[in-house]
Prior knowledge:
The structure holds 2 protein chains of 2 kinds. By secondary structure, chain A is an alpha/beta fold. Chain A has helices at residues 16-19, 48-51, 69-80, 103-109, 112-115, 127-144, 156-173, 190-197, 215-221, 244-253, 274-277, 352-390, 393-396, 414-420, 424-433, 461-480, 483-486, 499-504, and strands at residues 148-150, 180-184, 201-205, 226-231, 257-262, 281-284, 304-306, 318-322, 331-335, 409-412, 440-441, 450-453. Chain B has helices spanning 2-5, 35-46, 70-76, 79-82, 94-111, 123-137, 152-165, 181-187, 209-218, 303-306, 319-356, 381-389, 420-442, 450-455; strands spanning 56-57, 115-116, 143-147, 168-172, 174-175, 178-179, 192-199, 222-227, 245-249, 265-269, 282-286, 292-296, 361-363, 372-377, 393-394, 397-398, 409-413. In chain B, a hairpin with a 2-residue loop joins strand 5 (174-175) and strand 6. In chain B, helix 12 (381-389) crosses helix 13 (420-442). Chain B is globular, with a radius of gyration of 25 Å. The interface between A and B is large, with 199 and 204 residues.
Amino acid sequence: MSATPSPPTNADTPTAEQRDAATTIYERSVEGRRAATLPPLDVPERDLADLIPPKLLRSDPADLPEVSEPEIVRHYNRLSRRNFDLDTGPYPLGSCTMKHNPRLNERVAGLAGHARLHPAQVPKRAQGALELMWNLERALAEITGLPHVSLQPSAGSHGELAGLLLTRAYHEDRGEERHRVLTPDTSHGTNPATVTMAGYEVVKVETDGRGGVDLDDLGAKLSDDVASLMLTNPNTLGVFDENIAEIASLVHEAGGTLYYDGANLNAIMGFTRPGDMGFDICHLNLHKSFSQPHGGGGPGAGPIAVSDRIAPYLPVPRIVRGEGSNGARPGFDLSSDEPKSIGRLRGFQGNFGVFVRSYAYLRSLGADGLRDASETAVLNANYLLARLRAGRAGTYLPLAFDRLPMHEFVLSGAPAKRELQAKTLDVAKRLLDYGFHPPTIYFPLLVDEALMFEPTETETRESLDELADAIDSILAEAEQDPGILHDAPYTTPVRRLDEAAASRKPVVREPASE
Amino acid sequence: MLEAIGVASVDELFEAIPPDLRLEAPIRLEDGLSETECFDHLSALAGRNSHADAETCFLGAGMYDHYVPALVDAITQRSEFLTPYTPYQPEVSQGGLQVMFEFQTAISELTALPVANASLYEGPSSVASAAYLALGAGKGRRKLVVSRGLHPHSRATLHTYARGFGADVVEVGLADGATDATALSAEVDAETAAVFVQNPNFLGAVEDLEGLAGVADGGGALAVAAVDPISLSVLRAPGDAGIDVALGEGQPLGNRLDYGGPSFGFFAATEEHLRRMPGRIAGETTDADGRRGFVLALQTREQHIRRERATHNICTSQALNALAGVIYLSWLGKRGFVEMGELLARRTAYAQEKLASVPGVELLHGAPVFREFAVKLDAPVQDVLDRVSEDGIAAGYALGRDYPEFEQGLLVALTERRSRDDVDRLADSLARAIEATRGALVSPSETRTPEAEVSA
């Protein structure tokens, strides 16, 4: 190992990008410059004050930049070079499923019939869009084993909120009032945040020695006041909870719903299904398992799939399919006539452009391709883990829970911190110099100095070898001189940033020009 | 690879899944397609939609057919913006973080409010997010007073979320197109956490934001305004009118129609609400060598740090859509933005007068309007829309479904893409359609009630 040549260990000679100080588009503004030319005025030039009372008009124009088109292009191209991205190199960010974004999906999302379709177009003139959404709903129902789907939620967090509002509606319809929602201590932060937003109290469930839900603790905390248990399976440790059937029956006996956080679905597609495990409600992150590009933090989409007993409460509008008569194609419509529905969660029909991309992905892969994706994702994670353990990581970054993981795994950097004075943050920052995006760090919270790797099916054996070699090389550097890691990164457009200062005295916009 | 792992087969890696939960047969999806087949399939579906290049589109209702400049596509399709995740490692995410910072500055300028976040999902859910902020700031106040001028989807979304928040939503009606200030005043009391208005409102009417903010303030409630960002070119800025939180649907700023999404929501507020804001916020800082840089600021508000005590559950923002927004605003620039607003105001005035001159068409209200206006048809609206669509025109949005009190209402929207000629064609087509519809109504065999159309 350690064949990787080490990147610079100092920043004595700043790179070209480091010498190029950050300049905002506002600072490039010069009075009188412009890019756009609008169509000419072809109606009478009325004084605005004759049309709208002057007290309702703006006195000072908004201070937007004054720049030419070439300057805009250069500015944003320059900024783009200050980003690391999935198309540049491995991005093993745990629980984020950074898989390849096929460009076909961009092309079909950009077709005029999709991109230029007005959301208020009447259903009979948007049949292709509704059929696509219907087909996607059916595919997601089949993948999750939960027969009813709403595509409406805009993200995983939005799907979670939908799930708890559905739970609330379900219980209220039965005349029950429940106040608590259980989440494991390994859960994504969105889970407890959603619980509070949905008006419930969070109760944390402990993790057992094997990395799964502690059944005794679950039993002790379940009661007729518990509305739901929110779970990820495999969980954020990458561990599949083999007690899931028992967990489901415990929750159901107590009258609660079982909620599946679909962030880790990429491990099990075609192998097992949340519905078969006993889950009632599940969200899916189309930007994770279904290849919607992450866009630097959105857009995404978080459709929900539910069991029969939850279906009456799904958000509106629902897509309904009518049989075509006399051999005609079936017709599709939007229906808001659902008396028990929780209502709307957002405007119009959801993030349709995301649906198009994920539908194209599903149609490209088919059932076999989807299963292959999960199989390769799990194989890749285990291979990367094996390569890491064979090197210095085996000593300094041990597996937090010693068992075969699925699509992701969590290492603990506690020994590295103790024996090498190299914290997880230091390892991550040094990895930037090696040309890799670091894993998710300091999550899940119950693992000390956590590093969570999810390589996805996208990586090749070669790129996994390179990543393992880089980690080993970094730990070798730390053995020699941990100071190398403390001062990293050296080669990025800026070096380690003072995040605390940005929160202590926040500067969240360019100063006003006056 | 299996040898390195120390297993004999891939199946061993899946052994944690209990056998009775493992799928015996493949899931039932259609077989995978080659790239050309997949393209053809999606292309055929797209071909069955009547889109804004194929017809002249006067549809609005919150999303508008503005031209998206080519440079927006060119920049947003760059891998470096398209494929990274949220900027958790700021040293290699300076591009995205600086874009957020520039975006926040632009939104702050537009709204005349000092702090803005890096975007939320979209418009209506941003309204609900403002309610969550107001309930948190309102120390036990549980009532939300909402103008019926607020987008029907925003009101519906607020009702949905309010069930979780444990808050009551009370709606206040309109008087001649604008929010009924007297009725609003009567509803705002010591229990009221926030008052919600929209500008221009759903009927296109320009509201007196300052007056409505005064009503909220008088009751100790927050004043929240949902605003069309394009309107901020010429209409009074919320921050100058005493509004505490301004938010809105960002689609008009350089985002495609996309049948309703993805787009972005924007969210700005007075300084005192900074630490209660939902979503990501980029902040300026320095690196170890003193260089200027950007990071995610105030993360202790957020779910991944604060968990059940977070100010919101949102994780994903709409970074790529917000990038399109800030490029678009730079493309229009300070002067172009104002020119856009003036063009729309004048086109709207022309269209309003033109349509009002058509027999069987009258204005639905007398309030001043910007970019969108409502008319009342003396004929069944859906019948008229169907006939006009045969001329290749989407005439507008039928109001009856959302406003039973405006069963004959039609909402017509303008953008810089709808020329005077387009408006004239719409007027002619409407005139013919109304005449034909009235003629058809005389014949009992063809009589269709508006109710039957709405439910069809």
